[in-house]
Amino acid sequence: MKRKIIPILYLLITACVDPIKYAVPASDTQLVVDGVITDEAGPYTVRLTRTLPVDAYLQNQVEVTGAMITVRSNAGEVELLKEVSPGVYQTATLQGKVGRIYSLEILVDKKTYRSDGEEMPPPGAIDNLRFEFTPYTKIEGGVQKNADRFNVFLDSKGAPGVSNYLRWRLTGTYKIETFPQLHMIGSLSPTGTTVFVPDPLPCSGPPPAECVCCKCWITDYNAPTVSDDQLISGSRFAGVMIGIVPVTRRTFYDKYYIEAEQMSLTPAAFTYWKLVRAQTDGATSLFQPPLANIKSNVHCISNPEEFVRGFFMAASVTRKSTFITKDDLPYRPAFIDTLTSSCLTAARTATTVKPSFWP
Questions:
Q1: For residue 166, is it within any domain?
Q2: Is the pTM for the entire model greater than 0.85?
Q3: What are residue 79's DSSP bridge partners?
């Protein structure tokens, strides 16, 4: 019996060398629209990208170039947007106004897309922006590490006499310093060993020239939060946590600027962003809402069966900001780490341009 089983097992094992291939239907790309008009000064931006097939998941989305994008209002305003960089389109003269209805039309790849009309709601106000230091630890690689942070809260109110659908977003900015003048390069010595010799980066000077890549400002974005069950009374919202600020040697090398943005949304935009936030919060849950089911307000007129992602919205905006300083910490942060590269490589949002709000 054993002599008969062994050859069969051998055939089964060796037969599994070639991978099994399934006939999977092709995955179409989908247009992604991300645009907003507010009552703040323009220009306003619309971004167009396309999703990629499932088997290309390691790549970024593809920018959609060469589109004709038009914004219209019920007041007779019409403006053709200009493509200022690949996939990024902006207005030039349009000024959003509360109470007007705005819609978007896109002509690209011989197809026409249109958004539903969005009536810009009246703005509310942020009454108070505050932060609280919170001791925190996390586990990385089985090791417990310090991860102290500030939790950021606000108290706000919507416009009186209307239904209020609000979205909040926290933006943070901090300054860092790197030391490209200390950059080293490896070189072979006459004995065949590697030695490191000074190789200051050109942007670091050298003295007496000024270093133009030593100091940068980095911007962080927290995920948006939407109003839900936190409405107390009289269109007031109290103690809404809108984000966190990590306490590190970089974020508090100098100080940390926080800005709270409150957007008054239409019911459709509110539903969209609520689903986006639910998916962000439930990324590890089996019951998270599928991304494909998050309804866009942009439709393909040429092919009504085509699914479009993203949203075009009209929103009024209120902002409030402040600084968190080292004096708000219960201890002094460690000295900044010594990076010998340009500060522009420290983060994707790094810039050497000093923000207008920075003292």
A1: yes
A2: no
A3: 71
